[in-house]
């Protein structure tokens, strides 16, 4: 079994690669990653010498490169995670999201179609997507797989577009595909531009915690290792042509989450309770900020038997412990370009 995992040096991808390399020694795992600012081979240092692990540096938006790759290798499964993933960056530079998320995905679909010919036996193109394609919810209701698409940021529009292409290749060419749409992940190796790792880093350094708007925006949070387990389940048992929503059954308003994070961090850092909450600073809102996401994950739970394994507080404690035990990782990714990014976004 040859499995191509794209974006395997990123946050979620690195947990997926590690899980597959360790759990399936008879599979050959190929990690294709362009190593953008978000990709970090240090995330995989513990498995880099495993005999069934192979790293390939390359850009999925480079059509020639992808065509050549699929001429050379016949992969049995492609698990596609490579993407530009940060909403705030998509507001500043939408085109790089079109290139990687839309064109990159179509390049991979073409690669599979050409290399598999007409024989799709035991083949799979598994596209990892987001709940943001469904748009924003009001006070009530949950996203199900039947919700119509209503993306509202350049990031979610590019992900929605890639989902449409994946379904179109299934309908038009019969390509064996499956899609999952997941809620907000958190956990080790998360780049500190997203809410939880950014705030952990700022609490450690006693910097302000920039909460957008009134902080009453709501997200559903899932521990990243539980997402990796769900991806393993779907890669092996998902039904071709289906979509599965993945979520944590775990909705939090940003401000409540930030307060909990502050209290847990005070405890871990032996600071007086309330110290970190003083760093909370309300700032100008994100344009087009989606009010609420909430996932109905009952289909994957009922049909494939997957459910989250840790509670939110357990997951947050594990996450905080990881960041406090890995200061070199944090230091490495927050030096250089990161400082410029931070100034541009938050000054
Ligand atoms: P990430 O930004 O941490 O990692 C993305 C990885 O893709 C990086 O290693 C980067 O180097 C690589 N990459 C970017 N552009 C590339 C290109 N042109 N060619 C090859 N590699 C490229 O992202 P993440 O948070 O791990 O998200 C992974 C996937 O899961 C994405 O498709 C994202 O849309 C989806 N997703 C993320 C979340 C979340 O909460 N993080 C939730 C649901 C879905
Ligand atoms: O829902 C799944 C999506 O979750 C993924 O598809 C995306 O790749 C991932 O980045 C994430 O998107 P969000 O925009 O929800 O995540 P982010 O961590 O950027 O923001 C979470 C919430 O916190 C959101 O309401 C905005 C708010 N926020 C974020 C940052 C970075 C702040 O209040 N301040 C901040 O500095």
Tell me what the structure shows.
- This protein has about 350 residues and is α/β, with parallel strands linked by helices.
- It has a domain of about 240 residues: Rossmann fold (3-Layer(aba) Sandwich), CATH 3.40.50.
- Helix content is about 45%, strand content about 15%.
- The chain has 12 helices and 12 strands.
- It has a 7-stranded parallel beta sheet with strand order 3-2-1-4-5-6-10, sandwiched between helices. Strands 7-9-11 form a 3-stranded mixed beta sheet. A two-stranded parallel ribbon has the order 8-12.
- Strand 5, helix 5 and strand 6 form a beta-alpha-beta unit.
- Helix 2 runs parallel beside helix 4, helix 6 crosses helix 8 and helix 8 packs across helix 10.
- It is globular, with a radius of gyration of 20 Å.
- The model has no long low-confidence stretch (mean pLDDT about 95).
- The protein binds nicotinamide-adenine-dinucleotide and 2'deoxy-thymidine-5'-diphospho-alpha-D-glucose.
């Amino acid at each position: 079994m040859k499995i191509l995992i794209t974006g395997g040096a990123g946050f979620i991808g690195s947990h997926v690669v590690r899980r597959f390399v360790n759990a399936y020694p008879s599979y050959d795992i190929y990690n294709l990653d362009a190593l953008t600012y978000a990709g970090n081979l240090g995330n995989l240092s513990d498995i880099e010498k495993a005999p069934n692990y192979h790293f390939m540096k390359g850009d999925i938006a480079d059509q020639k490169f992808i065509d050549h790759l699929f001429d050379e290798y016949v992969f049995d499964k492609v698990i596609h995670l490579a993407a530009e993933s940060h909403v705030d960056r998509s507001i500043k530079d939408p085109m790089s999201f079109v290139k990687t998320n839309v064109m990159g995905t179509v390049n991979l679909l073409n690669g599979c179609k050409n290399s598999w010919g007409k024989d799709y036996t035991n083949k799979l193109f598994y596209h990892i997507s987001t709940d943001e394609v469904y748009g924003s919810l009001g006070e009530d209701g949950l996203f199900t797989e039947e919700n119509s698409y209503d993306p509202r940021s350049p990031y979610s529009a590019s992900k929605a577009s890639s989902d449409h292409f994946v379904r179109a290749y299934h309908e038009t060419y019969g390509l064996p595909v499956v899609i999952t749409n997941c809620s907000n992940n958190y956990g080790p190796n998360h780049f500190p531009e997203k809410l939880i790792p950014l705030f952990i880093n700022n609490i450690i350094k006693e910097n302000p915690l920039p909460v957008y708007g009134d902080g009453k925006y709501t997200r559903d949070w899932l521990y990243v290792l539980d997402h990796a387990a769900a991806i393993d389940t779907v890669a092996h048992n998902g039904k071709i042509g289906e979509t599965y929503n993945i979520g944590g059954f775990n909705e939090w308003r940003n401000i409540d989450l930030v307060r909990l994070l502050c209290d847990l961090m005070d405890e871990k850092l032996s600071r007086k309770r309330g110290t970190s909450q003083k760093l909370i600073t309300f700032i100008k809102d994100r344009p087009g900020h989606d009010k609420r996401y909430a996932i109905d994950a009952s289909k994957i739970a009922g049909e494939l038997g997957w459910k989250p394994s840790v509670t939110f507080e357990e997951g947050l404690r594990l996450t905080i412990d990881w960041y406090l035990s890995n200061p070199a990782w944090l230091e490495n990714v927050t030096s250089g370009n990161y400082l410029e990014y931070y100034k541009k976004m938050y000054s």
